[in-house]
Amino acid sequence: MTRLAGYVQIALGALGVALIAVLTFDPTADAQRVPRAENGRVDLLAYPPQSLDQPRLVNPGEAAWLETVRPQYAVRLLGDAAARIRPEHGAVVPAGSLLFGMRVTGGYTYCPRIDFNAPVTRVQCFRDFNDDGVFDGGYLTRHSSINTQFLANIVHALDRVVPVPYEPVEPSDALETTSTIVFERLRNGQAVFRKYIDAERLTSSYACEPLAENPELCTLFGVTLRVEPVGDAVRITLVDSPDVRQLNMIMTNTALPTRN
Questions:
Q1: Contacts of 139 (CB under 8 A, 6+ apart)
Q2: pLDDT per residue over 73-117, tens digit each?
Q3: Which of 65, 92, 184, 253 has its CA 20 to 30 A from that of 219?
């Protein structure tokens, strides 16, 4: 039986506050007022740590382990999604493309994975406002300085799009990437770590928290470990990991455009 752990919430970035324009979107008789620009949240599934089948000595700045992550929600386009021209160009997304789900106000928008090393990292994302299996609204992404393919700084420019059908799919190897957990330092006797998704370092550092019932063990991102100091380094032993863990990756940058 697959063991599924609860959510661990992780965040990226934090800037100033701005007013957010809203759009009355009415593909059906039930109009919805939703922000035209907002931050998103991606629900990720994380799989057991790699390279921890034996205890490992890890120095500060070294990877403690790697793990596979993939978006929890995904769909496949059943037709070509037309290009957008304004306010910025958004390329055609061809039929058969797999899109990952990003949580926004009132539901999800679905985006193709973002090549963060490309000269232009902007992609189109799509919404189905009446849950009929056809995308009828869409955004553009802004992705500056975010080095992961599964989250944008913001989605913005919400507008109607040429309708395009889609179908939900199960989490897929085609939408997976690698997360790296790096040992940072010992702080007041606790081991502190940083987490990366692709090449993006998450804003916060995270201590391995001792278990109340067994203080010799600790938990980090839903994984139970034994972490023993060895000078400035630590010896890490994997004690237990669920088959699948759920993580939330959230962009907290609220410097949003007021018009789009």
A1: 109, 124, 125, 126, 127, 155, 156, 157, 158
A2: 999 999 999 999 887 888 999 999 999 999 999 999 999 999 988
A3: 253
Higher pLDDT: 234 or 89? It is 234
Triad 164, 170, 171: Cα angle to 5°: 105
174 conformational bin, left if phi > 0, alpha if psi -120 to 50, beta if neither: alpha
Cis peptide before 87 (omega within 30 of 0): yes
CA separation for the pair 150, 127 (Å, rounded) = 17
The DSSP symbol for 202 reads P
* Residue 29 scores a pLDDT above 70: no
Q: How far apart are CA 31 and CA 255, in angstroms?
A: 27
Give first-to-last CA distance, the chain, whole Å. 46
**Cα 207 from Cα 12, distance rounded (Å):** 17
